[in-house]
Amino acid sequence: MLMNHNRISHKRALLPLVVSLFFVILLSGPMPSRLSAGTGIDSRGSRVTVPDDDVRVVSLSPGATEILYAMGLREQIAGVSVTSDYPPDFVKTRPKVGGFSTPSLEKIHSLSPDVLILTTVVPLNIKQQLDSLGIQIFVSEPNSFKELLGSIDQFGRLFNREEESAALIHDLRNTAGEVMEAVRSGSIAPVKTFIEVYDNPLYAAGRRTLPGDLVAMAGGRVVPDTDKRYPRISEEKLLLIDPEAVILGHNTDMELFLSSHRHLSSITAIRNRKVFVPNPDEFLRPGPRVVFALRDIARFLHPEAFE
Amino acid sequence: MKRSIQFFLLFLLLAVSFIASTALGSVTIPFGDTVRVLLSAVSGKAVPGVSAMHHDIILRIRIPRVLLGMVVGGGLAVSGLVFQALLKNPLADPYTLGVSAGASFGAGLALFLSYVAGVQFKSFLPAFAFIGAVSTVFLVYFLARTGGRVQVLTIILSGVIVSYLFSSGLVLIMSLMGDKSHEIVFWLMGSLAGFHSFLLPAACITGALSLFIFSFYRDLDLISLGDEQALALGVNTEVVRIVLFSMTSVLTAVSVSMTGTIGFVGLIIPHSMRMVFGPKHKTLIPTTLAAGALFLPLSDMIGRVLPSVLFGSGMEVPVGVITSLFGSPFFIFLLIRGKKRLWF
Amino acid sequence: MKTAVKARGLTVSYDGCPVVRGVSLDIREGEFLSILGPNGAGKTTLVRALTGIIKDVGGEVLLSGKKLHEYSRREFARSVSFLPQMPPVSLPFVVSDIVMMGRFPYLRRFEMEKPRDAEIVRNAMRLMGIEQYAKRHLMELSGGEVKRVFIAQAVAQESDILFLDEPTAGLDIAYQAEIFKMLRDFNENLGKTIVLVTHDINHAARFAGRIILFKNGSIAEEGKPEDVVNEDTVRSVFSTEVRVEYDNGVPYVLM
Q1: Nearest to B148 among C48, C56, C153 (CB)
Q2: Is C120 helix (H, G, I), strand (E, B) or coil?
Q3: Residues A102, B314: C-beta atoms closer than 8 Å
Q4: pTM beyond cutoff 0.80
Q5: Is 0.95 exceeded by the ipTM?
Q6: What are the structural domain ranges in chain B?
Q7: Structural domains of chain C ordered from first start
Q8: Residue B215 and residue C76: Cβ atoms within 8 Å?
Q9: What class has domain B3-341?
Q10: CB neighbours of A129 closer than 8 A, spacing ≥ 6?
Q11: Higher pLDDT, B261 or A32
């Protein structure tokens, strides 16, 4: 009699057991990526996926470093390039892996990153080596303010910090918007602006670059008018173009510029000394601080709008 | 061909080079305008009918550039000639004693310091390059001097070693500068562009040194007989070498500090002139000076105009590339044709 | 123009090895002196030191009573010529240019060649029988002709003293005799002092007025050919057995 009872209770206990087991199996199996890993799309259009927990990222892009920091990543940033210098106190604590064109692959590998962030497409042999080491590359190369915001958005998806990235984007949009509003309200014509990224030989930034876009947003009309990103230009052509303002995007200052461009002194911008050197870390770096450069350039180009 | 006709042709080419380099550029200016601006250049006032901008392009961009090319081209050519004579080596050029390596190192140092210590170092770049250039010569001479005498072979070897030393120094600087090292690369390519406040003094120095070197034309002729025989005939070979090496090194250093290292001019021009005008330095020195002065601006003009026409506006090829591109086949042509009349 | 070269205690060392050991000798004006000796004896070095081509020497050399280093190179070259053994052959210059180089000691920096210089050059070329080669390149000439070009250069130099280092080395017999005869001519008719370093004992004995036998950096024998050249001296200086015959009192050596 007792044996019969036991057999029946075993059968009854089995069902909940099986059901619980089922749920345990269900919950421990491979999960949809939304919950345990993030996916982002980089500038090449490549899809990159990294785990959420204990994600390790190495950033060879100073701009990306700043973005990630602004999004709240700290110890997840396992290593940075030596050129990442902001915020200084934070960056000091991060291991260094070399420059962005001279990274130490050994060092990078020793940090076991899930992803490596770069600002430019790498040479093939480096990429092959990274592939063989199993390191993913995320190329972040925004060529406009909009692309920069898009970059931030993708970082948010990649590292599962979509709230933070949305907030950052919102802030930047607002600040930029304020500046552009001020410029527009002054209803002044755009200033013909030349962005010099190198002087000997003469290289310009076109409007299809981040610096060019910032200048356009700040109320400048970027010359030379070309689709090329960083065209070379002859001094004669520059005289012909005759910009009203010059913005310097390389290692120089006002005095040096004026003394080395004396033979071009008939250019309106030089005659009127309408030359500005924005902080290169804000102007040339695709990071959150571009809005400061934007504001400074707008103030330079349209001072009357900011009285 | 009569000698006088040859001289005339050389002078003609010089004039053509000057005019062509002034008339052509990435901005098209009607030839008549160019001529009128040139003719009125003395007064410096704008010529009616020519836009102020064209005026500026010709007088403030092209003419200084052409003049720089003439000064540097002539200086490098004469330096090359003298080095070939003193070292009795047809492959010698103004950079044989390590001058270019020293100048490049100096320039690299200035650029490095501009990043590390402050932008103002950039404005001292020509001075750094000059000091670097001249230092190598002293170093080479010091190294080659054994027991109060200097052998030609020892000088060449010392030059090679010192070149390596400074080149590695430069590469070190470039690796330290990392991403910013493109600035040095640009300088190394050599260029006639930019503003040079030192142009007029440099022209005077080049002229003075060339004249001084010219006064040694007989000594240079005799040195080709061999040191012993030159000494026996009354040439103070030791003194002549020291003086001429110093002068040509200063001449080269002045050029290189303004334009970066432009190669080939110092090598092909002397040889070409030797093939046309013979071996006597009384003729060679002035003709080499003139040929260098016409060759460089012409090469620069080609580098400014041709790529622009072929590949789109603004594109310019560094003058050092043009001199090598045109120099190499021309040199091969000379070798093949003039074998028996060439030196060794 | 009476000049003489005097050496006192002349010493030359290479890397600490003495090549010329304390040599003292007098070269008299108008004499024809020949310096003979085995290879490595130091003959060429001696001559180089006497002509100031090597400067790092011990002892002193005097020209006309004045010390060598007190002369400027140009000044010295007006009195003394030196023809090295190997003249350069692959020179791009033409013969008349090379002979004109002999006028260097007389021309100042920016001074042009004068008609007199051109005449001297012409005469020198005529004397050496190379006038017809005036516009030719050295490379086109034979060994003997090349030698004559450089002798013409020395003639154009109008020096009183000619030092020659093995002028007949590598020349065929016709030229050898010719060169010696020419030098005797310079000596007897033009009054030039000739100092000749040579291996050619027989021609030296025949033409020279005085012979110096040089061995191991020192003068072994010195005097008239008939006194200096004999079987014993040759054996001791050249370390070889020879037979010496005489032709009209002039010794000649048979190997």
Answers
A1: C56
A2: helix
A3: no
A4: yes
A5: no
A6: 3-341
A7: 5-84+154-254 (3.40.50.300)
A8: no
A9: mainly alpha
A10: A105
A11: B261
